[in-house]
Design goal:
Number of helices: 9
Structural class: alpha/beta
Distance between the termini: 103 Å
Radius of gyration: 27 Å
Strand order of the largest sheet: 3-2-6-1-9
Number of strands: 9
Amino acid sequence: MKIVPLLALTALLAGCATAPPEGPRLDHSLTARAQSDRIKYVILHYTVSDLPRSINTLAHGSTVSAHYLLTDTNPPFFYTLVDESRQSNHAGYSSWKIYNQLNSASIGIEIVNPGFKETPQGRVYAPFQQAQIDQLILLLKDIVRRHNIAPGNILGHNDIAPQRKQDPGPAFPWKQLADAGLIPWPEPSRVAARLPGYQEQLPEVLWFQRKLAEIGYAVPQTGELDQATRNVISVFQTKYRPSLFDGTPDAETAAQLDVLTTPLPALPSPAPAPDGN
């Protein structure tokens, strides 16, 4: 019988043993310049239900969710339901500018609010608590700072889905967000200056469609005042002219669209101070 040396036998057995799994070799010393934050948008919603049902739907349901849920308690606070690094299912079929299906590129914030009720006098929208809006502005400022969100990218669910959504509705105080520097707003004096011209001669429907698309809305470009176009105009009006949002392309809506799509020219840089030496 051939005797295998002990050292050779040990090596042979070691080679037959399964090697422990190794992870990938990662070098974190380089960072690409060509990259950006995944989060481009913040989308605001109302829950159309009370707090317990909102929690049940958004936290325990298997269909929809949101990153944040703003309560209607006293004082209000946010439930953090989905980490910002992960996608929540809040936007659904949606579109804004070059983006479709905004779930993957947005943070969703749900606000506890009953929405609206039908009355003999028509649909009545519930107001938002001022304390809720105060909390919302604080969170939005923090999100904007951390993700460098552009002012035109804080939107309502109805902005990105105007054919099927109404929230956060005409009772939502968008002007307070504008006053906080979070969203653009048509400057009233510029609107007033353009209003007489549009009262005298209203643009064609295609003009309205093109201006709405320039802002970001998904709107037909047919020149026809169809229901889809009326729906988009109505959504625009709920934000900037909530006193009347019937979807009619009128002079005030035209003036607001004109101002929003015609930014003021940048002021020239001041001349350098003369050298006193």
